[in-house]
Design goal:
The chain is mainly alpha-helical. It is built from 35 helices and eight strands. Helix content is 70%, strand content 4%.
């Protein structure tokens, strides 16, 4: 019972939180929801009035002709839309659309004040409103697509759709209440007034919030026909594109047949006012259902079943409705059909379709969307209309319902293929702009003595010996696996690839050692990565057996570090040990995410993870949206929920709130956190905990740790602290050097794992006043982090002082080898020296650091 209540609470909290935008995003999200509200309110005023007029003055027998004529109207609209977007941009087109709706609303209102009209007039009004039914939808979501990526879309599109549904409710209620009080033309006047009121809302959005795209696609050359033809040529690029296009085509055919069925029943025995009132009431009910579904059901559906599985829902709903028409055709079935079309299809299928189109090839998405929405959907309505015009008049409602049931079945089959191809399509989009670095050939020479930085790279004695043994004697022992993996923390990318190949060459004899290494915290992250990759190549079935529980354990371990971070932040102590520990415990969950992504890749649940990881590390972008979708689809619900705080890049406070809400934190105090950190397999974390305990008057812990591990970071920390206890100046501990680097804002790209690699290689120096560190125009081969005193920097006639916590000569780290400044020591200078060679060697071992350094170099001054 307790578990059931906890699960229910989790679902409710997730549903409610999914409806709420981020605090900083609330005004923007509400502004877009308000824009949809105004557009849809005016549209419903016109379309319900037009439907009632058409059915009362022309009759349901004219509907098939409307479906066919609407194809020509939509083709013309699409051609105009694409051409005008390319020539003027979406913003100016939106302005023009509002102007057209205002002008046409006034014209129709004036025409209704004159003499009675013949059938062609009602055909024209019906076609006009039908064109905007599709056209405003495309316009609104195309405009919105420029402001939100896929991640934000999944979170907020339901809110935007609910805003549109609210507008439709108001429009439907107005028609229902006023149908017998005002003439039909007045509703078109009200539509014009609503369009006029939309302008200020649109202007505010454009003025206040920037687009996430530059708009270069809008300004591209080429007409609508060329774009549609490009879309046709792109259809064969992927099975996903073909299946999605087929699914959209068939769902439109199915929906058109459903529309014909309920319209036939609605029109029987009702006059114009009765039909207007009926349409107003059912529109109000449909959009109330639409709002409730989009607010409280759509996001949980997508979160629980995924975008690709939700695509199967609408064909099933239509199938059930057609069975109802076949067994009991009457008002109940008609209302059910109307709700299936205007409530469920709008709230679920069309919202979900907006997410499915992100799987279309990025380079051709505009063209393919133009083809689907501007050609395929109208053509589908025309095909259904032709059938209804030629065949259906001689058939009963029950027999037409069986045709509709068959159409729903074909739609379901297309969507099954969409479901199978969706993940691969998203992955292809994410990979399209990235190099697959994992495919590079390893540089075998590195491990046998050809090192790029011989004076600075750490020695790889064990790996070198084993590699030479394999190359010369062609043999390796199973016991070598442990040594290779224990040393893996310092390997470069090419060395890791070579070690993986050496282990794979051992065959199944290496499997027990690989399983043990992949599950043991005694091995470094890099060692466990190599173990998983090698195990996947040697015995993939065994990897799949251990992968899922391993990933869940790894993801939950991130919350142990988050709990430790919370305990260590409660104290105001600013000692170096605690500074380093807080940073490690803040950074480690991101490392956990990297480990899980790589494991998912190796287990075949994700495409190569490097591009996903890089995209997740960026700001709001299309690629980041693709990456989040890939992880959520590949990881599964439980694992994705554990990773959610780091996938979404939440700040620590929100991560802690999420962990508390889901009861994932481990209660501990500061001392308990220090003791647990002391037992860590990360030498920097252990040394930081030992130094913090030493400073608390418990020096014995460092000695105990040294009996277990003789890592240079721990040994040097003990040497400096012991000397300091006897009043000797032995410099800074590695922990203090790392803490100093961590507190320099310009060096934020260094994560704790990079600094752990560098920690024992960072010399410190006391420098005399006036000592020259770099001449202007001279060589620049290191940066200096000021611990005490100051550095004086001269550039031309300008002089500036660099004090504690800041860095001088930092551009050396980005590749500048000639100093543009003269750098000299000031009064009482003690500095940490950060040599370029060691940083570049670290970047070879950790390519993500190299990417960040390159990003820094390319950034504007």
């Amino acid at each position: 019972m307790k578990h059931a209540l906890s699960t229910l609470r989790w679902h409710l909290s997730g549903t409610i939180s999914s409806l709420l935008p981020e605090p900083d995003d609330t005004p923007k999200a509400l502004a877009f929801a308000g824009l949809g509200f105004l557009l849809q309110a005016g549209l419903v005023l016109g379309i319900t009035t037009a439907d009632s007029l058409f059915l009362s003055r022309v009759g349901a027998q004219g509907l098939p002709s409307i479906y066919i004529l609407q194809t020509a109207a939509m083709l013309l609209h699409t051609a105009a839309f694409v051409t005008l977007v390319k020539r003027f941009g979406i913003d100016r087109l939106f302005d023009g659309t509002l102007a057209v709706m205002i002008l046409c609303g006034l014209v129709i209102w004036l025409l209704f004040t004159g003499r009675p009209h013949q059938a062609p007039f009602y055909y024209a009004v019906k076609l006009y409103t039908g064109m905007w039914y599709f056209g405003l939808y495309t316009l609104f979501w195309t405009f919105l697509d420029s402001y939100y990526d896929l991640t934000e879309a999944k979170r907020l599109y339901a809110l935007f759709a609910a805003g549109s549904a609210g507008g439709a409710m108001i429009g439907g209620a107005a028609v229902s209440l006023l149908a017998d009080r005002i003439d039909p033309g007045t509703f078109f006047l009200l539509w014009a007034v609503t369009a006029l009121l939309t302008w200020p809302a649109l202007a505010r959005i454009r003025r206040r919030w920037p687009k996430i795209d530059t708009g270069r696609e809008e300004n591209a050359q080429g007409g609508a026909l060329r774009e549609a033809m490009a879309g046709v040529r792109s259809l064969a690029d992927s099975r996903y594109t073909i299946a999605l296009t087929g699914g959209f085509f068939m769902i439109t055919v199915t929906a058109t047949i459903c529309d014909y069925e309920y319209m036939r029943i609605f029109s029987a025995g009702r006059d114009e006012a009765q039909l207007a009132g009926l349409f107003g009431r059912v529109t109000l009910a449909a959009n109330l259902a639409n709002m409730l579904i989009t607010l409280f059901l759509f996001n949980p559906l997508v979160a629980r079943f995924g975008v690709r599985n939700v695509a199967l829902l609408q064909p099933v709903i239509f199938g059930a409705v057609f069975l109802w028409f076949a067994r009991a055709p009457g008002m109940g079935a008609a209302i059910g059909g109307f709700l299936a079309y205007h409530a469920l299809m709008m709230a679920i299928d069309i919202n979900n379709g907006n997410l499915l189109v992100f799987g279309l090839p990025t380079a051709r998405r505009k063209e393919l969307r133009t083809l689907i929405e501007g050609v395929c959907l109208p053509a589908a309505a025309a095909c259904a209309g032709l059938f209804l015009l030629v065949v259906a008049p001689g058939m009963s409602i029950e027999k037409v319902a069986l045709i509709g049931l068959a159409s729903a079945g074909v739609t379901f089959a297309c969507n099954v293929v969409v479901r199978q191809e969706y993940v691969g399509a998203i992955a292809a989009n994410l990979r399209s702009g990235w190099l697959d670095l994992s495919a590079l050939t390893p540089r075998h020479g590195v491990l046998i003595g050809i090192e790029p930085y011989p004076k600075t790279v750490k020695a790889q004695t064990g790996a070198t010996t084993i590699a030479r043994t394999v190359q010369v004697e062609g043999r390796a022992q199973a016991g070598d696996v442990a040594q290779l993996l224990l040393d893996a923390a310092d390997y470069s990318a090419s060395e890791r690839r070579l070690v993986e190949q050496l282990i794979v060459a051992m065959g199944k004899v290496a499997v027990p050692g690989l399983v043990e290494a992949s599950e043991s915290a005694r091995y470094s992250v890099r060692g466990r990565s190599i173990a998983l990759r090698a195990l996947g190549r040697i015995e993939f079935v065994r990897l799949q057996e251990i992968a899922s529980p391993l990933m869940l354990r790894t993801a939950r371990r991130a919350y142990e570090f988050l709990s430790r971070y919370e305990a260590l932040t409660k104290t105001g102590d600013t000692g170096a040990g605690l500074v380093v520990l807080r940073r490690i415990n803040r950074d480690y969950p991101l490392l956990t995410l990297e480990i899980v992504l790589e494991a998912l890749t190796i287990a075949g649940q994700l495409p190569p993870y490097e591009a996903i990881s890089a995209a997740l590390g960026g700001g709001p972008s299309r690629d980041r949206g693709y990456a989040v979708e890939m992880v959520e689809q590949g990881a599964g619900r439980e694992l994705a929920s554990l990773l959610a705080p780091w996938i979404a890049a939440w700040p620590p406070d929100r991560q802690l709130a999420y962990a508390r809400e889901h009861e994932l934190l481990v209660a501990q105090d500061e001392r308990e956190a220090l003791v647990r950190a002391l037992a860590s397999s990360f030498p920097l974390e252990a040394a930081a905990a030992a130094q913090a305990l030493w400073e608390r008057g418990e020096p014995e812990h460092l000695g105990e740790k040294l009996r277990v591990s003789l890592h240079p970071i721990l040994a040097e920390t003990k040497r400096v602290l012991s000397a300091r206890d006897t009043n000797q100046d032995a410099g800074l501990t590695p922990v203090e050097c790392v803490a100093a680097v961590m507190q320099v804002p310009q060096l934020a790209m260094f994560k704790f794992i990079h600094l752990e690699w560098l920690a024992s290689l960072l010399p410190t120096a006391k420098l005399a006043v006036g000592e020259c560190l770099a001449l202007q125009g001279g060589p620049l081969d290191c940066a200096w982090i000021v611990v005490e005193g100051e550095i004086v920097v001269h550039r031309g006639e300008t002089t500036r002082l660099i004090g504690p916590g800041l860095v001088a000569g930092e551009r050396a780290l980005t590749g500048e080898r000639i100093s543009s400044e003269q750098i000299t020591a000031g009064e009482g200078l003690r500095a940490i020296i950060l040599p370029v060679g060691q940083v570049l060697a670290c970047a070879e071992a950790f390519p993500e650091l190299g990417i960040e350094l390159l990003r820094w170099r390319l950034a504007p001054p």
